Amino acid sequence: MEVAVRDMNYFEIFDLPIAYNVDINLLTKNYFSLQRGSNNQIDSSLLNEAYNILKSDIKRADYFLNLKNVSTEKMSSEQAVKMFEIREKYSSLKNNEDKIAFQNQIKKRKKELILLLKKSESDLGNFSEVFSELKFLNSFLEKERSDVYSRN
Amino acid sequence: MGTTASVISYMKGSVPEAIQIDGSVTVPSVVNYSADRPIVGMEAIYRADDANTIFSVKRKMGSNEKIFSHSPAEISADILSYIKLSAEMKLGKKIDAAVITVPAHFSDTQRTATKQAASIAGIKVLRLINEPTAAAIAFGLDKNKEGIFAVYDLGGGTFDFSVLRLSDGIFQVLATGGDNNLGGDDVDEKILENNFEKNGITDPTSNEKMSGKRVAKFLKENLQDKDSIEENFEIHNKIYKFELNKEDLEEYLKEIFRKTFLIFSQVLEDAEISSDDLDGVILVGGMTKLDFIKKLVVRNFETKVFDDISPEKAVSFGATILANSIVDKNNVLLIDVVPLTLGIETFGGGVDKIIHRNTPIPITERREYTTYQDNQTGMKFRVLQGERPLANECRTLANFELKGIPAMPAGRARVVVEFSIDVNGLLDVKAYEKTTGISQEIIIESSAGLSDENMMEILEKAFKEKENDQIQANNIAIKIEVERSIKFWESIIKEIPKKVQKIASEKILKLKEKLSAEKFSEVIPLKNELENLFGKFLDEIINNHLSGKKIKDIK
C-alpha cells in the first residue's frame, strides 16, 4: 500500500481527475477526511505537500504541466522583452504610492491570467505560455512583498 | 506564556478552566533574582524596584543574551516551574505534560528555546501551538461557529494575525503573519518619552524608566473616554505630573494600527481571500481591550468583531482543548502552517526558498545541489529563515557541512538537502549524497539559544536538585515555595485592611505549624486560602509600594 501511494500523483491521492480545473471544495473535503482518518495510510506530510500544491492556482499549473511533460522553463522572446520592460518600468518608479499602484496593476493582470489558464486547459501550448507569464509576475510580486517582512 | 502575563488552564470535565495563582488567573511573567531562589509573579512585581527583576523575557527568547547570568530559556523555565508547582498545589495533582503556546511568527530558534524552557521546568511538551490558532480553537468550540475567521492578536509586545477556516471540529490555518516587536509597550514608550520631555527629565536611570513606564501604562489603560488624565510620578522625592490626552493616545494607536494593517493585508492576500470573505474577526491580546483599537478594527473589516472572549484565557483554553484532544485522541483536527519561509543560502548570497511560509505542517521538502569544483568532498550550507531575498537579510538558523562526498567531477554529485517541519513548527535538516548513497551526519552549530551541551548541563542540574524520590522532591519544592510565600505575606500584612490582618496572621501561624510538622495535606489548602485572601489586595499593594506610598497612610 505504501509503495502504491508513493506512485500516485497528487490528483490521484485526492481521488480527483488529472485536470487543471479542480473543485477546490471537493479537494479540501477529501483532504480533511484523509487527514482525519485514524488508520492513516498516507503520511500526513505527504498529504500536506499534495494539498498545498493542488489548492494553489499557480503551483497546480506548474505541477499539471510537469505531469504532462511540458517544460515550464521556456519563454518566447516576445515575452522575455515584456518581462524586461516590466522590471525596467518598476525600478524607474521613485515614490512608494506609484510602486504600490504598479503592483496592484500586476496583481490585476495575475488574476486575469489565472482565469485565462482555467479556460485554456485543452490547449497545452497556449496554457504553458500563459503560465510562464503568470510565473514571472508571481515571482516579481513575491520579491516586492518581502519588504513588508523586513523586520523579522 | 505571555510577554507580560501567563495563564495555566486544565480540563475540568469537558470545559477548560483557568487556575488561580496568587489570587489571579494571570501570573505576571516577571522574575526577580534577589534571593537565593527565583521569585516569580506578583511578588516579583512587588520587588520591581529591585535591579534584579526581569520583565518580558519572552522578547529575548532564542537570543544569546544573558540577563543576570541566566539565559532567556532558563528564566522562562523559572516562570514555568513556578506556575507548574502553584497549579499542582491547587489541583492536588502532578502535572506531567502540557501544550505550550507561542506567537505564530516565532522563529525556529525561539520555538526551540521555549521547548528547552519546558524541559528544564520538568514539563513534557505535548505540542507547541500558535497563539492565534489556540484562540480560534477556544472561540470555535465555545461559540460553535463555522466559516472563515481572522484572529487579530495585539498584545504588549507582539502582533499576530491569522486566518482560519473553522468547520466541524476542523481548524485549518490558511495564512499567518506578524511582528515580533509591535504592541502596547511601544505606546507606553511613546507616552513615557513625551512626559520625560515635557518635565525636562533628561538621562533617566533604568529604574526611573521602569517605574515611569508603569505610570505610562496606567495612563493608557485608564484614560478611557476622558479627554485627559494625570498621575503623579516621583523621582528623588520630587513629584512630577505625568499626563496623557486623548488626541495623543489616538495618534499613537493609529500608528500601531497602521503597522498591523500592512501585515494583515499581506496575510489576507496570502490566504487568497479579501476581507469581505471573513465571517468574523476575533480580537485577542491586551491591546484589543482599548476601545479605540476596537473601533479601528471594526471600521476596517466591516464584519462581525468578536471581543467577548477573555483574550488571555482564550489562548490558554485553546491549548487546553488541544492537550485534551491529543491525550484522548478525539476528533479535533488542527492544521497549522509554517509562519516564515525556510531556505538555503545560494552561491552569491541569495536564498533558495525550500519551504514557503503558510505551507501546512507537518511537511517535508527536498532540494538537490551539486558540487562546483572537481573532486570537491565537502559542501557547506547555511539554513535561513525569513522572507527577504538576500541571505544576509534573513535569520541564520544553522550552518552545517556535508563531508565525505566521494571525489568526482564538478556537477556530478547529487546532494539532497531535506527540510522537515513537525507539528510543533520545529525544523529538522538532513543532507545526503544520492549517487553513492552516502549520508553523513550533519553538524548543526546552533547559532542562538542553548547548545545541546549547555542544555544537558542545565537538565542534569535540575534533576540533581530534584533528587531520587519524586514525591519527596515535590514536597521539598512545596516547602520552599510556601516558606517564600509566608515571608512575602508577612512583609505586606500591615498593608491589608485591619479587619483581615488578624485572620491572616492567625492563618499564617497555623500554616507555619503545619509546615514544620510537614503535614502537606493540610499545608496546601491553608496556603491556597491565604493566597486568595492576599490576592484580593495585591494589585493595590503593589501599585502603592511602587509609587512610594503605603495604604495605611492614605486611609
Write the layout of secondary structure elements.
The complex is a heterodimer of chains A (152) and B (555).
Chain A lengths: L1 H6 L2 H4 L10 H13 L7 H12 L1 H11 L9 H16 L3 H24 L4 H22 L7
Chain B lengths: L4 E2 L2 E4 L2 E4 L8 E2 L2 E2 L6 E2 L1 H5 L6 E2 L17 H20 L5 E6 L5 H13 L3 E7 H13 L3 E8 L4 E9 L2 E10 L4 H15 L7 H17 L5 E8 L2 E8 H25 L9 E5 L6 H11 L3 E2 L4 H18 L4 E3 L6 E4 L5 E5 L7 E7 L9 E7 L9 E8 L12 E7 L5 E7 L11 E2 L5 H15 L3 H23 L5 H19 L3 H27 L4 H4 L1
Parallel strand pairs in B: 8-9, 10-15, 12-17, 15-16
Antiparallel strand pairs in B: 1-4, 2-3, 5-6, 5-7, 10-11, 11-12, 13-14, 18-19, 18-21, 20-23, 21-22, 22-25, 23-24
Helix pairs in contact in B: 2-3, 4-9, 5-6, 5-7, 7-8, 11-12, 11-13, 12-13
Task: Give a verbal description of the structure.
The complex is a heterodimer of chains A (152) and B (555). Chain A is mainly α. Chain A is built from 8 helices and no strands. Chain A has 2 domains: 2-55, no CATH class; 77-149, Monooxygenase. Chain A has helices spanning 2-7, 10-13, 24-36, 44-55, 57-67, 77-92, 96-119, 124-145. Chain A is elongated and about 55 Å long. Residues 148-152 of chain A have low confidence and may be disordered. Chain B is globular, with a radius of gyration of 26 Å. Chain B contains 14 helices and 25 strands. Helix content of chain B is 41%, strand content 24%. Chain B has 3 domains: 5-183 and 253-335, Nucleotidyltransferase, domain 5 (2-Layer Sandwich), CATH 3.30.420.40; 342-447, Substrate Binding Domain Of DNAk, Chain A, domain 1, CATH 2.60.34; 465-554, no CATH class. Chains A and B meet through helix 3 and helix 4 of A and strand 12, helix 7 and strand 20 of B.
Keywords:
heterodimer, A: about 150 residues, mainly alpha, Monooxygenase, elongated, disordered C terminus, B: about 550 residues, alpha+beta, Nucleotidyltransferase, domain 5, Substrate Binding Domain Of DNAk, Chain A, domain 1, 3 domains, six-stranded mixed β-sheet, five-stranded antiparallel β-sheet, 14 helices
